[in-house]
Amino acid sequence: MAGEAARAYDETGDASPHAGLRRAIAVLALCGLFLAAYLTLYHYGYVGQIACGTGGCETVQASKWSRFVGLPVALWGAGYYASVFGVATVGSMGASAERAWPTTLLLALNGWGLIFSSWLTWLEVARIHAICRYCVVSAVLVGVLFVLSVLDWRSRRRTPRGGGSA
Amino acid sequence: MSKTVRKQSGSRFVGMLVMVAIAGVAILGYSVSRPRAGITPVDPNLPAGTAEGYLIGNPDAPVQVVEFGDFECPACAQWANLTEPDVRARLVETGQISFRFFDFPLDIHPNTWPASNAVACAADQGKFIEMHDGVFATQDQWDGIATSNPKKVLERVASGLGLDMNEWESCFDSQKHYPRIKANLEEGIRRGVGQTPTFIIGSTMYPGNIPFDEFKRYVEQAAAAAAASTKAPAKSGS
Question: What is the pTM of this model?
Answer without folding.
Answer: 0.57
